[in-house]
Design a protein that fits this description.
This protein is α/β, with parallel strands linked by helices. It has a single domain, classed as Rossmann fold (3-Layer(aba) Sandwich), CATH 3.40.50. Helices cover about 30% and strands about 30% of the residues. The protein has 6 helices and 11 strands. The strands form 2 sheets. Strands 1, 4, 5, 6, 7, 8, 9 and 11 form an 8-stranded mixed β-sheet that branches. The two termini are about 30 Å apart. The relative contact order is 0.20. Its EC number is 2.4.2.8. It is found in: Cytoplasm. One of its GO terms (biological process) is purine ribonucleoside salvage. Its main location: cytoplasm.
């Protein structure tokens, strides 16, 4: 059984004029690598795999803020539909955690994890992330989760970047949408939250993206309380 679609270095992507791109992003983008429809189809299939593996017990879906929120919402919509329309259903609880480790494109020495993890004791936890690069921050989160003794922990990610620089966690590729191979000649920025496509970004667009990410990291916002449906 295949797990994850592999996006290779030699992938040329698609002409951006084939897609509906918001005007305020058009000048910053060069090409589209993963069309939105393909992301949605892969997300729906992944939801089915997750329910087959974890659908016998109460699931706590733990979203890693802020980047993972849009993917998290889409994935949970599919999981909810399967849960409501299947032969059996289980309680699904939604919770959130924030991991702070990047500032101005440079990893800080200390990884800060913000969220109430003590409620996860004895639960089946599904951690949802948008992209795993070196795996350093995910390794830190899983260590914190282990301290709270959950019954089971699975990690799902929209994107997994294959890199030889990884000193930390490398996820099971069963629970990912796409595998990215590190490209040493081009600078790619993947923006599923911003434009619903994964695209190659021009230099000026990269500057805008870094500025927006830095603003998000500096902004203080409260974590939403857990929700059960």
């Amino acid at each position: 059984m295949a797990h994850g679609l592999q996006i290779k270095d030699e992938e040329s992507g698609y002409n951006k004029n084939l897609f509906c791109i918001p005007k305020h992003y058009e000048e910053d983008l060069e090409r589209v690598f993963i069309p939105h429809g393909l992301i949605l189809d892969r997300t729906e299939r992944l939801a089915r795999d997750i329910m087959q593996d974890m659908g016998n017990n109460h699931i706590v879906a733990l979203c890693v803020l802020k980047g993972g929120y849009k993917f998290f919402a889409d994935l949970l919509d599919h999981i909810k539909a399967l849960n409501q329309n299947g032969d059996k259903s289980v309680p699904i609880t939604v919770d959130f955690v924030r991991i702070k480790s990047y500032c101005k494109d440079t990893p800080t020495e200390k990884i800060s994890i913000v969220g109430e993890l003590s409620t996860l004791n004895g639960k089946n936890v599904l951690v949802v992330e948008d992209i795993i690069k070196t795996g350093r921050t995910m390794k830190a989160l899983l260590s914190k989760l282990k301290d709270n003794e959950p019954k089971m922990v699975k990690v799902v990610s929209l994107l997994i970047k294959r890199t030889y620089r990884s000193p930390g966690y490398r996820p099971d590729c069963k629970y990912c949408i796409f595998l990215l191979i590190q490209n040493k000649t081009s600078s790619f920025h993947f923006m599923p939250l911003f434009i619903n496509e994964n695209s190659c970004v021009f230099q000026e667009g990269q500057k805008k993206l870094r500025k927006n990410i830095y603003k998000c990291l500096k902004a203080d916002s409260q974590l939403s309380p857990a929700v059960t449906f």
